Amino acid sequence: YREMTFGGYVSGHFCKRCNTGWMSQLEEDAKPLLISLIDGTHSGTLGTEQTRLLSFWVFKTALTLHSIAIQGLFIPRIHYTAVCERGAIPNHVVIAVAQIRGQADFFWIQNQNWPGVTGDMSADDFSMTYKIAVQLGQFAARVHYWPFEDRYMHEYFADNIAHIWVDGPQAISWPPKNIMTNLQEFEESLVIGRKIDGWHTQR
Fold it and tell me: Which of 33, 133, 160, 175 is the S-S candidate for 142 at Cβ 3.0 to 4.6 Å?
């Protein structure tokens, strides 16, 4: 876990051209929508152009935070080059958003912990995965990368969460039906299940 002021960090993981180019433009483009989500005033449909913009902002922010994390680095380098060089979010990356009760200036979590069916998986398998969740005011976003297609992801609080990026931008209604209590609840709501003979199972 790490708490800090949103403007209180600088990442050297991105080159100057990225920092002063597309990343700066992305911040400007996303700012009006982000403000309304952060202060809880936005209501209505977010179309795919809006969720595309929001997804790239969330993914860029997750990569930036991870690059200055004190717990160690585990996001594959190719995920940085995908967004910097190709303007793409890698396959198997899913981005979800939620509304959080109360206010927090800035708070984020990163880990490789996955509740659910994981007993037959190796440390090398887990080293390929990640989750990063970020809260700003009443808005929270979670990026997860899970490249194993014999597993599926189940959201314990499905009515509280909207997926804005699943193989591309997804239109959503905002706010969700229910509000999450805190960022940790949001981050931990994702549980792994196993696909067996076409059925989704958990144990």
Answer: 133
